[in-house]
Amino acid sequence: MRPLTAHIDLDALRHNYLQARQYAFEARAMAVLKANAYGHGATACARALRDLAPAMAVACLEEGRALRASGIECPIVLLEGFFDAGELDEVITGGYWSVLHTHWQVDALLERLECWPQHRITALVKCDSGMHRLGFAPERVGEICQRLRSHKGIEQILLMTHFATADAPGSPLLTAQLETINTLRRRLDLPGCFANSPATLGVPAARHDWVRPGVMLYGVNPLESRHTLHDEVDQVLRPVMTLESRIIAVRELPTGEPIGYGARHVTRRPTRVGVVACGYGDGYDRHAREGTPVLVEGQRAAIAGRVSMDMLTVDITELPEADIGSRVTLWGRDTSGAILSVSEVASWCDTIAYTLLTGILPRVPRCYHGGVSDHSSDTGTSS
Ligand SMILES: Cc1ncc(COP(=O)(O)O)c(C=O)c1O
After folding, report:
1. Ligand 1 pocket residue status of 222, Cβ below 6 Å
2. Is 16 near ligand 1, meaning CB less than 6 Å away?
3. Residue 167 pLDDT > 90, yes or no?
4. Active site residues
5. What is the 297 CA–ligand 1 centroid distance (Å)?
6. What average pLDDT score do residues 162-177 get?
7. CATH number of the domain that 149 lies in?
8. Which of 84, 241, 310, 367 has a CA-to-CA distance to 184 between 20 and 30 Å?
9. Cα 256 to Cα 266: distance, rounded to the nearest angstrom
10. How far apart, in whole angstroms, are the C-alpha atoms of residue 354 and residue 240?
11. What's the distance, CA 287 to chain centroid?
């Protein structure tokens, strides 16, 4: 069997969720499981969190349906709401909480609720407090809430917003967004739902009354390195995904020899090269620069040459013990205990940890470890 595997540590996921809850103080934390739980497998992650999380959040009804099919019964928040009115019957009757970010959604929901007099739904009214992606202008939110409040099919309204710069300390945009949304929250006297991971960790004024941690659940520190809490958060979170493979061939090259496509790397000394079973056809980023770190049996080594579809090449000259069969950790926690953070790898690829995690393709088997719930029916294996 090809040795590349994404090991998913569900105990670490639970640990990180509990950390989010602690940072959230009195706010409740919905677990954000969209994009297949950031590449980790939504079903297994949801089951592992179901005794802890009072609600879960996904991007769309299709993702919510997959959670329902796997036995998840808590409210599931649709972070962009419904995409067409044809979804509404299922949204209303299926225990979903819908974000409303545009007028047609409000009209369609209120109209469709007339057909379901026995059902009530929680609506999250999204305010564009300054990010200018989704949401109503702050001055329009009052009238939307007024309409919703007067309909008996609306069980509860949460005021929602999203921050553009919660990871950056002292951001003037964040200050402005907080001022806008908290003023509105007080004026309308509504419970809030504002904070993503960085705001949950570092922005106390955003912790009303629900928080929406995503990436931190998977062990990624979302704060900028100059943030005062950055190092503390590094200590607290545990990586959930470990992407692991093995060396499948070793080449001994003299000085001046090229390695891989485009001959990007030319040896500057006699070099031992380990060929690793992992490539962009698995979702590993082809933009990984010369020097991108990996762990070989827990020891650091560096990528030499371009990443190809099924393989990448690593300079193992300094690791004489490394050979065919040696374990290679592309990111995560090596079995020796050494950690290579996905954020560090991402910085070598000029991207962010989110894209690397969500980019791991179905071709890569997920192997689940720990967690309290039964996840034996997932597509991955468990231990
Ligand atoms: C609306 C919304 N809420 C919460 C999150 C979670 O953000 P993070 O992964 O940074 O915690 C996202 C992620 O993109 C989002 O779009």
Report:
1. yes
2. no
3. yes
4. 34, 261
5. 34
6. 95
7. 3.20.20.10
8. 84
9. 6
10. 13
11. 21
